[in-house]
Structure formats: structure tokens, C-alpha cells
Amino acid sequence: MIRLGVNIDHVATVRNARGGLHPDPVGAALLAAMHGADGITAHLREDRRHIRDEDMIRLRHELTVPLNFEMGATEEMVAMACSLRPHACCLVPERREEVTTEGGLDVAGQADDLRGKVARLRDAGIRVSLFIDPDPAQLEASARIGAQVVELHTGAYAHNPGEDEFRRLYQGAVAATEHGLELHAGHGLTYGNVGRVAGLPGLAELNIGHFLIGEAIFTGLPAAIARMKQEIASGALFKAVVR
Ligand SMILES: CC(=O)[C@@H](O)[C@H](O)COP(=O)(O)O
Ligand SMILES: NCC(=O)COP(=O)(O)O
């Protein structure tokens, strides 16, 4: 069964809008876990625009489901992750000016630097995932530098859900398995587009945040998670085909 990681970044966005403590992203994570989230994802950005250091520390100590710590591949973040020791780290590209993560990590272009960081995280007992575009060179480099997992960036497909973008994801999924990498996917997924992505061959986990937190305003987080899990389960029944 495909696991659902719930990303709680944007609970913190709402909290930070007023500078207080409500709504608490850790409370949202605990609620999500009680209502079917198989894991929790949180992205500690360099500019701390939503999740903050103390949120990560509390998540690490209060959660009973796996924590996926999303982070830029910086010295500061690697050191923090090695001391916190979450279940997993997902290394993502980060630009301060961006509204959200715009593309995948250039693993092929930064292989020498990333290899050492991946090794340090793995030595701390952390499962290492790389957030990449479904590009053959990035998949090959991810395996070569020792990552155990890749998360395919689904943002391009989410914004332009046509055959060309889906074919890229499909070919990326096949290549991930050929390289012995565990396959995750995420970014920009909704009830409307998750089904086809859930049919990707070899998919183990989806990470979904912004849409789920938005839907929770209308239906509540438990109902939003339940509906997303249904969409994933029905999508996974149909093996993806590409034309
Ligand atoms: C890496 C990724 O695609 C996202 O989960 C990421 O966390 C997005 O960043 P924001 O949550 O800041 O939009
Ligand atoms: N890695 C993707 C993620 O955690 C959630 O992305 P989004 O659903 O907030 O776009």
C-alpha cells in the first residue's frame, strides 16, 4: 500500500501570520497521525518562513509515526538533522526568493558535495531521499552518490497534467526501480491529480501538504486525509499507462 506523508508546513504559515502559537503545526501532525497519516513531512526552510527549529524538535520527540525532515543541502541543516536523527531526510533545492520549491535538486551537478552529506546523514541512521525532477541523469546520480530514496517532483505534472509530463514521471519511476531506489513523489498534488500519480510503477510514498491543509479548512483534517487516502487507493488499482 502506498504511504501518505502529510506535510504540515502551511499550518505553521497560518500560525506565523499572527505571530502567536495557534494553529500549532505539531498538534496538526498528531491529529493527522491519529487519522491515517503514515508519516509527517516538514520543511525547515533556511528563512524559517513557516516551520521553525522548535517545531522540528517537538515533532521529533512527540510523533509516533516517521518524520521526514525536508531541508536544503546546507551544512547548518545537515548538522541539525544529524543531531535530531529523524526517520528520514529529504534534500531539496532552496532559493530564498521562491514561493515554493520550483525544481528538483541538481544531484548530477553537485555530486561531489552531496555525496559527503548523504554519507553523514546515513551514518547518523537517517534514510536519505533526494527531491529530483524525473530526469535520467538525476536518477543515475542519486543512486551513484548513495541515496536510498528519490522523491519525484510532481509540480510540473500538477501544473500541466498532460501526457508529456506524465510520461516523464513514468519513465522516472521505472528508472528509480532499475537503479534500486525507493520511489516517492510529491508536490502540488490534489484529489484531482493524485490518482494517476498513484498508479506509477513501484511507488511507495506520496507527500502532500498545501492542498490537504487548505481542504482541512472546509472539511477538517481527518476528512481531508480520509478522502486523499481513498483517491490514492483507487488510483493505485489502475497501473499507469503511457501513450
Ligand atoms: C520539497 C517540496 O516540494 C515541498 O514539500 C516543500 O516543502 C515545498 O515548500 P513549501 O512547503 O515552503 O511550499
Ligand atoms: N515534498 C512534497 C511535499 O511535502 C508536499 O508538497 P505540497 O503538497 O505542499 O505541494
Short description:
The chain has 243 residues and is an alpha/beta fold.
Overview of the molecule:
This protein is α/β, with parallel strands linked by helices. The chain has a single domain (3-237), classed as TIM Barrel (Alpha-Beta Barrel), CATH 3.20.20.70. The chain is 47% helix and 18% strand. The chain is built from eleven helices and eight strands. The chain has helices at residues 9-18, 25-34, 53-62, 75-84, 111-123, 136-144, 155-159, 163-178, 194-198, 210-219, 221-237, and strands at 3-7, 39-43, 67-72, 88-92, 127-132, 149-153, 182-186, 203-208. Strands 1-2-3-4-5-6-7-8 form an eight-stranded parallel β-barrel, surrounded by seven helices. Strand 5 (127-132), helix 6 (136-144) and strand 6 form a beta-alpha-beta unit. The longest helix has 17 residues, at 221-237. The two termini are 26 Å apart. The mean pLDDT is 97. Bound molecules: 1-deoxy-D-xylulose-5-phosphate and ligand LD2JLWAY. Catalyzes the complicated ring closure reaction between the two acyclic compounds 1-deoxy-D-xylulose-5-phosphate (DXP) and 3-amino-2-oxopropyl phosphate (1-amino-acetone-3-phosphate or AAP) to form pyridoxine 5'-phosphate (PNP) and inorganic phosphate. 1-deoxy-D-xylulose 5-phosphate binds at residues 9-10, 45, 50, 100.
Order of helices and strands: EHHEHEHEHEHEHHEHEHH
Q: Quickly count the domains.
A: 1
CATH homologous superfamily identity: Aldolase class I
Strand content of the residues, in percent? 15-25%
Q: Count of helices? A: 11
Question: Which structural class do you get from the secondary structure elements?
Answer: alpha/beta
Share of helical residues: 40-55%
The largest sheet, given as strand count, sense and whether it forms a barrel, is: 8 strands, parallel, barrel
Q: What's the overall average pLDDT, rounded?
A: 97
- Largest sheet, spatial ordering of strands: 1-2-3-4-5-6-7-8
* Oligomeric state of the chains in view: single chain
CATH architecture title: Alpha-Beta Barrel
Number of strands: 8
Indicate the CATH class: Alpha Beta
Q: What is the 3D form?
A: globular
Spans with pLDDT under 50 lasting ≥5 residues?
A: none
Distance between termini? Answer: 26 Å
Task: Give a list of the ligands.
Answer: 1-deoxy-D-xylulose-5-phosphate, ligand LD2JLWAY
- Cα-atom radius of gyration: 17 Å
Binding site for 1-deoxy-D-xylulose 5-phosphate: 9-10, 45, 50, 100
Organism: Asaia krungthepensis NRIC 0535
Subunit structure: Homooctamer; tetramer of dimers.
Protein name: Pyridoxine 5'-phosphate synthase
